[in-house]
Amino acid sequence: MAFDIFHRHKLTISGTQAQALEMARLRLIWVGMLMMMGYLAIILRMGDLCLLHHKSTAMLMGSGAPAETERPLRASIVDRNGNILAVSLRMASVYADARMVHDPAKLAQELAALLPKQNEADLFKRLSSGKAFVWIQRFITPKQEYAINALGDPAIHFQEEQRRIYPDANLAAQVVGYTDVDSNGIAGIEKFFNKRLAAGGKPLRLTLDVRVQHIMRQDLAAAIKTFHALDGTGLVMDVNTGQIIAMVSLPDFDPNHIGEATNNEKFNRATLADYEMGSTFKTFSIAAGLNSGKVHLSSVFDASHPLHIDQFYIHDFDAKDRPLTIPEIYIYSSNIGTAKMAESLGPDYIRDFYQKLGFMQQAPIEVPERATPLYPSPWREVNTMTAAFGHGIAVSPLHLVRAASAIVNGGILLKPTLVMPDNPDVPPQGTRVISAATSEKMRRLLELVVASGTGAYAWVKGYDVGGKTGTADKNKNGRYENHANISSFLGVFPIWHPRYVVLALLDDPQGTKATHGFSTGGYTAAPVVGDVIARMGPMYGIKPRMYITRDSIEKSMKPYLKEYKEGQALASVSTDH
Q1: Which one from 88, 183, 249, 279 is the annotated catalytic residue?
Q2: Strand partners, 474
Q3: 192 & 241 share domain
Q4: Is 63 annotated in the active site?
């Protein structure tokens, strides 16, 4: 009975009502499918906007505001000890849609009160422009961002950006360089390694030591002030690796405020300026002579009278008016003796040797600002004689310290570098330019110059300093100025186990009462090098050898310091002993 009732009820609802129920069920399914397709379309569009076309709201509105694409933070630049030289921080920038500004005068007044760098009248002009996008200020502080956001004006928007910060400001400005407002490298290391830095990642580690950089900058700045020089340059290089420990060019600038810097301040004199170096070049011409086998420490050249070449005369600043041995030519800085020695080597020998030292091409270094040396072409006999004492050829200070390192490190010319190697234990590869024996002789001569010659003011007791002074008449528009010079001193320490070359150069220093009116390299630049060595030596754990004295140095070279008496027959003077 119960089964019959249930069966009859089932048959009852399977008629017209069942068809209606089935139709309703189908309609619900179609509506659900349409809703699901709508949601799917919205999701796909959101994914397209967010993932494939990631633009700011302002860009979608056609405002012209910058895209808010996420970029990795630009990699930091650090010194050899990990001290930060350049770092990027995420900061907010504020802009406005001027079409949405209701009261430009009021908003300009409010923003000017929160942003001291902004002028209210200028803000009003921008906010009244009707433009879809106007910058208010790039790189505001979190406090300023909070205060501006609290104004609640719908026309104001924020953009996250990167800002490059240079914690040490001027200290290594020309070396590190700087970026533009969009964090693109414009100069120095920032430009040379722009792609690598922009990719983010681990810091770029330089060879600079900020401690030595500070010492050089401080001492050089003091010398510029004391001698009223126009500018100056200082370098410290590791002679065994080519690593640049310090590179200073003054005047300099603060890269945090690049808009205030002048072209003169941004100019890196250490790598981009060409100078006629004067007598420091005697280091290279005499090394060339000794290395040739034709010239020896005991060789003698007559410096009794000025040397006449064409319409020119070669003079000595402190003439001895007698024949001189090679050590005497070097320590007394005789132009006449050096020119005659170079002449004895033949017209092409000095030129070819300078070519080997890199004096005729740009120095290889990791900054884009590099000078191309200036040298005579064609190279004539007179050029051989004048270039031997540093006139008629102009190179950068970096060229000078690189070549000097090769002269004292055993004879190997290395590639200078500002970037620490991935594996510091692997010795750098170089090119031999002189023999180890010639290098040893040159170290003895360099030491003698400081102990008994023109470099006396670079003497640092116990530190075995060697070096060479340089004073060159300044060449301006192709003419030499008699009362303006480039004064320099090229120092090496410790001289018997060389580790560092130290250079100081001053542009047009003026003599003082303390220097008896002289502005030569021995009086103006040598003290800078001496002070840098005295401060740097203990910092680098270099122990002084207190038993080394000027007398002991001079005594070791006495056999080569011949005192010629007036009337001695010049026929006995030989140039090849």
Answers
A1: 279
A2: 481
A3: no
A4: no
Do residues 164 and 238 share a domain?
Answer: no
Residue-number span of the structural domain to which 195 is assigned:
77-115+135-205
380 C-beta neighbours (distance < 10 Å), count: 13
Percentages of the chain per state (helix, strand, coil), in multiples of 5 = 40, 20, 40
pLDDT single digits (tens) 297-330 = 999 999 998 988 877 789 888 888 899 999 999 9
Banded pLDDT at 1 (limits 50, 70, 90):
very low
Number of domains present in the structure of the chain: 2
pLDDT digits (tens, 9 = 90+) for 5-22: 444 444 445 566 666 666
Q: How far apart are CA 508 and CA 526, in angstroms?
A: 15
pLDDT tens for 142-196 read 899 999 999 989 999 998 888 999 999 999 999 999 999 889 999 999 999 999 9
pTM: 0.81
Q: Do residues 488 and 521 share a domain?
A: yes
Asked if the structure places residue 55 within a domain, the reply is: no
For the stretch 194-226, what's the b/e string if a residue is b when 16 or more beta carbons lie within 10 angstroms of its beta carbon?
beebbeeeeebbbbbbbbbbbbbbebbbebbeb
Q: Say yes or no: 263 and 160 in one domain.
A: no
pLDDT tens-digit series, residues 521-541: 999 999 999 999 999 999 999
Same domain for 159 and 303: no
In terms of domains, do 445 and 563 share one? yes
Max Cα–Cα distance, the chain, nearest Å: 159
**Last residue of one domain, picked from the residues 161, 186, 205:** 205
CATH assignment of the domain containing 186: 3.90.1310.10
- 200 and 252 part of one domain: no
Q: Give me the phi and psi of 79, to 5 degrees please.
A: -85, -175
Q: What is the CATH number of the domain that holds 450?
A: 3.40.710.10
Q: What is the DSSP string of 498-548?
A: --EEEEEEEES----TTTTT--SHHHHTHHHHHHHHHHHHHHTT----TT-
Last residue of a domain, one of 172, 205, 238: 205
Convert the pLDDT of each residue in 191-242 to its tens digit: 999 999 999 999 999 999 999 999 999 999 999 999 999 999 999 999 999 9
Local structure of 144: helix, strand or coil: helix
- Three-state secondary structure readout of 12-75: HHCCHHHHHHHHHHHHHHHHHHHHHHHHHHHHHHHHHHHHHCCCCHHHHCCCCCCCCCCCCCCC
CA atoms of 401 and 399, how far apart (whole Å): 6
Residues 190 and 91 in one domain: yes
Percent of the chain with pLDDT over 90: 68
Q: Answer whether residue 536 is part of any domain.
A: yes
Render 224-256 in DSSP notation, one character per residue.
HHHTT-SEEEEEEEETTT-BEEEEEEES---GG
